[in-house]
Structures are given as C-alpha cells and as structure tokens.
Amino acid sequence: MKxxxxxxxxxTVNTVAESLSDLIAKSGSKDETFLLFxxxxxxxxxxxxxxxKKDRIYxxxxxxxxxxxxxxxxxxDMAAMYKKNPVKTIQEGAAVVCPIFEKYxxxxxxxxxxxxxxxxxxxxxxxxAESAAAAVKKLPGLSEVLENLWAKNSAFKAKTxxxxxxxxxxxxxxSALKKEIVALVNALIAYVDSVGFVRDDLKGFExxxxxxxxxxxx
Length: 218
What we know:
Largest sheet: none
Structural class: mainly alpha
Strand content: under 5%
Oligomer: single chain
Number of helices: 8
Shape: rod-shaped
Number of strands: 0
C-alpha cells in the first residue's frame, strides 16, 4: 500500500486523520495498538482543526488593520481640512475636534496592533463626549467615517481576542501538525501491511485505508 504523500494539503490530511479515526473507532477491533492509532489520529485531527482556525483568524487581522488605518487617516485629514473651511459652524466644530485628533496623531495607524487598538478606543471615548459629539455633527461626513472606524476597531479587537484564545489552547501550527499526522498515518499503513494478511478483522479496513490514501494522493 502506498504511503500518504507529504505534499497533500493541510485540509486533506486533516480529513484523512478524522475519517481514519472514525473508521478505527467503529471497527470493533480489540487490537490495542490498532485502537491507539485511531485515538491518536483523532486527537491530532482535533488539535489541527483548532490550529487551522487560529491561522485563519490571524490571516484576517491584517486586512482589518489596513481598513482601520485608512479610516483613521481619513478622519484625521478631514478634521484638519475643516479648520480652513470658511463656514463658521464648521470652523467651530473643527476647533473642538482637531485637538482630540492631534492628541493621538495621524501616526497611530503605524503602531503595533494592540497599541493602535487602545489609541482608537480612547479616541472613541473622547469623541463621544457630549461637546465633542456635537462638534463632530457639524463636520459633514465625519460621523459616518468615525462610525465605520469604531466598527472596524471593534471587529479587530474581537478577532484578536479569538486569536489569542486559540493560541492559548494550541501553540503548534497547522503545518507542523500535518507532518505529524502524515507520519502517523504512514505508520498505521506499515502496521496494517505487516499484520493485515493474517488478520481477517482488518481486511475491510485495509481496503478502506487504501482507497482513502489513493484519493488523498490524487
């Protein structure tokens, strides 16, 4: 029987591990070594699922960060532009809002993830105060930009929390786990090859194993 190819995708390897674990559990075998293969494959599959989720969450952080960076710069520049507006009410609004933006600076968009999150959250608190909120309403379009910014920042913080939670549960990458699963599956293949010809109870499993490996390698 051919071995599982190391070049198989992470998702394919995870599916193989999960399905083989299920097959072994339902086989009715009393072979402790055989059952241990199934138990370990199930554990690795579960751990890898968590790692896949963690990697996916992390990959979603950068686009969200880029969006809130753009929104912060847009809001900052908009407020600065309104300082020069000839309309008195707009000038008055900008006079209240601009010092708040200047307190944090346009450059917070270049800060580390957590630091930027904290700055934007603090700016949201400042700009939501009664006098500041009233001033923001005097500046056309700024409220909409800020509402979008607050939403993106909240989404970013939620993703960060989910990433840190999954990282605490599992610090091994999905790709590293793939190598471990492939090695274990190939060890299972070697075991079945060595005892299958004298074990009638493994005949059905041996056929299923061969078919699943062939599909995964295709």
